[in-house]
Amino acid sequence: xxxxxxLLYDHMNNENDFQALxxxxxxxxxxxxxxxxxxxxxxxxxxxxEALKPKPxxxxxxxxxxxxxxDYITRTYSAHYSSKIQTLDxxxxxxxxxxxxxxxxxxxxxxxxxxxxxxxDIMKIIHYAILLYHFSGQNNEIENxxxxx
Length: 149
What we know:
This protein has 149 residues and is mainly α. It has 2 domains: 4-52, no CATH class; 62-139, no CATH class. It has helices at 4-13, 18-36, 45-52, 62-78, 87-93, 97-110, 118-139. The chain is elongated. It starts with a helix and ends in a 10-residue tail after the last helix.
């Protein structure tokens, strides 16, 4: 486990690595903060292992964006999409879910920053892209998910 003394030792033995020290300290603080509200709850070993996993070093804070998208999608299920049968369920039942999602991506991309909030348009594009990924995954298996073209 990382602590302040080990960070200081690492710093003193490698003075040129200030970024690594800063990253390690911020990672340490993130881990502390994540446990701050869980003192009354006992974590299972798998949960502890997951919580202590180092976070990816994403340059553009994609982890924060993913969290924001997750919050947006969660809110859509508690808002006007909260009925038991959604329109998308009906569209899927007739086999048009992929086309519907693709069309909505095009719709929100074409009106980007022209109607309402640009950020909200992007959120909707991402949400429909996730849905498209889901519906296309039901029909097509990904042979090599890490292959680049």
